[in-house]
């Protein structure tokens, strides 16, 4: 049992989906997994293990922001032997040609966080990227399912509310598709501890156009992303 996850040894699968919202973790487990069982309710950050087409998969909530996601990724890998992690989350679109509910696979993750600068003593701007095998598989799965998934870089931001929205325009000019709050930490920790990681996102709002989905839609209606993630994690 780790500090923040209440699972016993063997209760967490080597393959894990990581939504930020614990209620989304519950919805995924109950909707998709066979014989899903809850292994942790610590701090309300729910975790479940079940089977997807006969393969054990766990769903673990990770909270909001890189500090929270870092804790869960670190403990899943180091305390429970997790080998592959796919974040399934929501994002705000920066690219003009993205629409609400579009699915994105994040090839890399820029960040305004100081976490990696401190990790490298301020000498290196480390570039966190997805595991290529998982990324390639997700593209193949999306094509097979007829889902028009976009692949490209995103921003993992420390702050949800910002006084510098003009920076989003600059990032869009450089091809950054969307903004969320966890992926850079997940990619960095997975690289450090020799695990594989990928971030799949559904566009929940469009920052430039002011469009947005409801809280219930963000919790429960991102089925295309989840199905791509489940098929990818067991491949």
UniProtKB/TrEMBL annotation:
Q: What class of enzyme is it?
A: transferase
Note the superkingdom of the native organism.
Answer: Bacteria
Task: Name the InterPro entries on file.
Answer: DeoD-type (IPR004402), Nucleoside_phosphorylase_CS (IPR018016), Nucleoside_phosphorylase_d (IPR000845), Nucleoside_phosphorylase_sf (IPR035994)
Q: Domain named Nucleoside phosphorylase: which ranges?
A: 15-229
Q: What's this protein's name? A: Uridine phosphorylase
Q: Does the keyword Transferase apply?
A: yes
Q: Which organism is it from?
A: Plantactinospora endophytica
Reactions catalysed: uridine + phosphate = alpha-D-ribose 1-phosphate + uracil
Question: What keywords tag this UniProt record?
Answer: Glycosyltransferase, Transferase
List its EC numbers.
2.4.2.3
* Underlying gene: deoD
State one Pfam family annotation.
PNP_UDP_1
Q: Which family does it belong to?
A: Belongs to the PNP/UDP phosphorylase family.
